[in-house]
Write a structure and sequence with these properties.
Elements: H1 7-10, H2 19-42, H3 50-72, H4 78-109
Helix pairs in contact: 2-3, 3-4
């Protein structure tokens, strides 16, 4: 006969990842993003929006990492401020690429004006 689980196991949950772990995960995603771009640029048959989808994931995850850092209310330091600034730049550039891609795609598919 099996024993019922103890009460402590009912509330056994994995701890939230620490900000450093989230940053490492983000760095991994950034590397995967660059690797995916290299592969997509070599493959002419890749979907036109694959670059933008990858950049959107990168921008979203970067914003999530920034929010996690701010949510932890860590001790202010020069290194932390510089990291958040770099992450903000990364999120901005990835988001700008998505916006540029969307506006360029709209111009390409829009019929020319006559008249």
């Amino acid at each position: 006969m099996t024993e019922p689980p103890s009460d402590s196991l009912l509330f056994d949950m994995a701890p939230r990842p620490m900000p450093v772990e989230r940053l490492l995960h983000l760095a991994d995603q950034y590397s995967q993003h660059n690797d995916a771009l290299d592969l997509l640029l070599r493959d002419a048959a890749s979907p036109a929006d694959a670059h933008a989808a990858s950049a959107q994931r990168l921008a979203t995850d970067t914003q999530s990492a920034i929010k996690a850092i701010h949510g932890e209310k860590l001790y202010e330091s020069v290194e932390l401020n510089e990291t958040v600034i770099r992450l903000s730049q990364l999120a901005f550039l990835a988001g700008a690429y998505v916006d540029l891609h969307v506006s360029a795609a709209g111009r390409v598919h829009r019929p020319p004006r006559t008249g």
